[in-house]
User: Which sequence fits this backbone?
């Protein structure tokens, strides 16, 4: 039986693999008393997530309680009702119109386009529900901490350009920063600081002797590491998605925000910036960059933005999302209008147009 009309400290939107990983790790690790609400469309899926999360909390002796809420449609009325009734301190938004399966095969022309041109091809799908939920959350609960887990390196700048507040994302840079710290067995916050973009994850899926290109920037105890690939040659990501780390990266941040504690770590898309950065939050949940000495916020943003300028999507000062490089060329070959980009406030229209292209390409075989 699904529990309704119950207050929560944290509300999750989405029931996919990423959300499940974050939920299960939170249930097994949080030492503070926290109620988590999971909102999704499938009652059967929600029943499993609730059962497994509550079982894990008992197994590990954690004061975490998981409740669920069926929401057949993520429309404005339904989202408003959920947030008014639960009144969470934190919203963790992981519901997307584009699943991670697009990265797991290239048997159709759409998957091939995304894998060759970059995940930014899916940005309108990733942003649509996040923008809708963020707008409602800000209206219903001003000051709420909104975390967008859907492609935050690129989507969070879109959300801010569309006029909503977003605290940060989770994952991506957090995968690498924690992997690097784990490699050196560094436990103290702030000793390892990293600048990294989501596009840099792929190289760590290769064996060490095949790694090349622009490495993340890493500082250890205030000193920048000269040869990042060499220094962390033992770090190895899975060939596909890295949910076993990425979902977990959001847990300490969510717990801190829900419990009113300070925290220091790494997040993608903080305050709508492109790419990933070291950050800190105070006990009130105010976030700021935690950059190494000598690195300015302007320099860090430009370094991250350069990845999407080579091939991907950036957001201009006027709020226009523009495709670049190989991704623009791939889109241009299929639909010249889509390749021109769109204003971030019009993401629903952009997603509709892109959906028609996706349907057409998914029905076509990948090119040899």
Assistant:
């Amino acid at each position: 039986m699904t529990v309704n009309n119950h207050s929560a400290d944290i509300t999750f939107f989405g029931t996919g693999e990423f959300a499940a990983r974050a939920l299960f790790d939170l249930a097994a690790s949080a030492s503070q008393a926290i109620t988590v609400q999971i909102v999704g469309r499938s009652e059967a899926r929600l029943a499993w997530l609730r059962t497994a999360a509550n079982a894990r909390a008992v197994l590990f002796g954690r004061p975490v309680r998981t409740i669920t809420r069926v929401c057949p449609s993520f429309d404005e009325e339904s989202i408003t009702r959920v947030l008014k009734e639960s009144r969470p301190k934190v919203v963790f938004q992981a519901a997307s119109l584009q699943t991670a399966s697009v990265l797991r095969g290239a048997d159709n022309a759409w998957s091939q386009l995304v894998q060759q041109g970059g995940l930014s091809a899916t940005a309108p799908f990733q942003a649509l529900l996040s923008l809708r939920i963020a707008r409602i959350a800000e209206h219903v609960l001003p000051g709420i901490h909104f975390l967008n887990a859907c492609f935050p390196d690129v989507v969070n700048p879109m959300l801010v350009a569309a006029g909503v507040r977003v605290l940060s994302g989770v994952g991506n840079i957090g995968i690498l920063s924690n992997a690097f710290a784990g490699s050196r067995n560094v436990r103290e916050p702030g000793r390892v600081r990293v600048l990294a973009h989501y596009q840099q994850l792929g190289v760590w899926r290769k064996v060490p002797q095949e790694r090349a290109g622009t490495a993340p920037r890493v500082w250890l105890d205030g000193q920048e590491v000269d040869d990042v690939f060499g220094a962390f040659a033992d770090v190895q990501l899975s060939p596909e998605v890295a949910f076993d780390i990425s979902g977990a990266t959001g847990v300490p941040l969510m717990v801190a925000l829900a419990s009113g504690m300070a925290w220091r770590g790494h997040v993608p898309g903080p305050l709508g910036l492109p790419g990933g950065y070291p950050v800190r939050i105070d006990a009130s949940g105010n976030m700021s960059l935690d950059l190494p000495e000598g690195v300015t916020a302007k320099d860090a943003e430009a370094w991250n933005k350069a990845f999407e300028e080579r091939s991907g999507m950036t957001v201009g000062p006027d709020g226009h999302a523009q495709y670049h490089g190989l991704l623009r060329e791939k889109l241009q070959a299929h639909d010249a209008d889509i390749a021109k980009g769109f204003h971030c406030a019009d993401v629903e229209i952009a997603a509709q147009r892109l959906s028609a292209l996706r349907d057409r390409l998914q029905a076509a075989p990948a090119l040899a």
Remarks:
- The longest strand covers residues 34-40.
